[in-house]
Amino acid sequence: DVKVTQSSRYLVKRTGEKVFLECVQDMDHENMFWYRQDPGLGLRLIYFSYDVKMKEKGDIPEGYSVSREKKERFSLILESASTNQTSMYLCASSFPGPYGYTFGSGTRLTVV
Amino acid sequence: GDSVTQMEGPVTLSEEAFLTINCTYTATGYPSLFWYVQYPGEGLQLLLKATKADDKGSNKGFEATYRKETTSFHLEKGSVQVSDSAVYFCALSHLTGANNLFFGTGTRLTVIP
Question: Pick from A4, A56, A96: which is nearest to B99 by CB?
């Protein structure tokens, strides 16, 4: 069964910590994405990548960075976590073209 | 720029009722249109899609028709079940670059027995 796997379902971190969210896909997809989901705001794109070592800023990249050293893995990094980064984080991947995305189950991050 | 507007929720229906969730879009050119569903505690799943005008996407009893003249892609189901309770997202995508998806804010559906 093809899938996108996010390493943690729930995560609690302290303000100022460096946080890594990992995402792995087994579908050989070129494109990978990180979104955050907040009530009333829907999904907002943080960063995306359409190839290994390539990255592009989405709508809300401030406070985040990403890494894509291998095709199957796309990591989201919070350099210094803040309480306003408490959210649900969703990873997705796709082939180029009108095929839609495959999403992971999400990581609910709480920063205290 | 591109955007998607969908009806505000929440929507509460009785089992076997007819469902419509409205979605309209603003985009240049000819985007592809999608409906995603998010069940409680899970990520989003692709429900259906349409890639050109007048196409009808369908899956699990849900349907949506790509109407270019009204820039709409309304989701419908003739008889909802309790298991359809979820959040539904309308989205659009162009075929260029990373084919980024632009999502609506989501509509929460609750179906009561």
Answer: A96
